[in-house]
Amino acid sequence: MKKIIVSDASPLIALAKLNHLELLFAAFSEIHIPNAVYVEATHDRHRQDSQIIHDFIETQPFVLIHQDQANKDYQAFKNILDEGESQALALSTKLSCGILIDERLGRIIAKQEGIHVVGVMGVLLHAKFMGKITAIKPLIDKLQQENYRLSDRLITFVLNKAGE
Fold this sequence. Notes:
By secondary structure, this protein is of the alpha/beta class. It has a single domain (about 5-160), classed as 5'-nuclease (Rossmann fold). It has ten helices and five strands; from the N terminus they run E-H-H-E-H-H-E-H-H-E-H-E-H-H-H. The chain has a five-stranded parallel β-sheet. Helix 1 (about 10-15) packs parallel to helix 3 (about 35-40) and helix 5 packs antiparallel against helix 6. The longest helix has 13 residues, at about 85-95. The chain starts with a strand and ends with a helix. The relative contact order is 0.17.
C-alpha cells in the first residue's frame, strides 16, 4: 500500500519544472499540502511551474489542501524554519506521516522529530524503479539548469542507485 505524504513547496516546484508532478502518485496515494505551501508554490501564475502546480492540484482528487496550523508544533518549527516548511512539518506531525522536503535544515529537523523524509530525488528513484521514467540523469541535468540545488554527493548517490 502506498503512503500518504505532506509536501513542502520545493519538491513540487522541482517536479513541475520537470513537468512530472504525476510521479508523486508512483510513490504516494495522497499528497497533503498546507495552504502556506500551496500559496508559496502557486502565487506567481506568470511562472509556468506555478501554473502547472495549480492545475495539478485543482484536478487531482488525492491532493488535499489543509488549513495552516497554529499549534505548538508549528510554533516550535517557526522559530527555526520558514513558513512553508514549518506548516509542512506541523501537518506531517498532525497526520503522523512522512514529509516531502528538500531543504537541508528542514530535513534535519524532520529526522530529529522522527518524521520519515523523502526528497525529490527519492521520488525520481522510486519512479524509475516502478518503470514510470527510463532515466534520472536528464531530469537532474534539467533541474541543475533551473538552478535547483543538489549536492554532487547526492547526485552521485542517486545515479549509482539508479544504475546510471
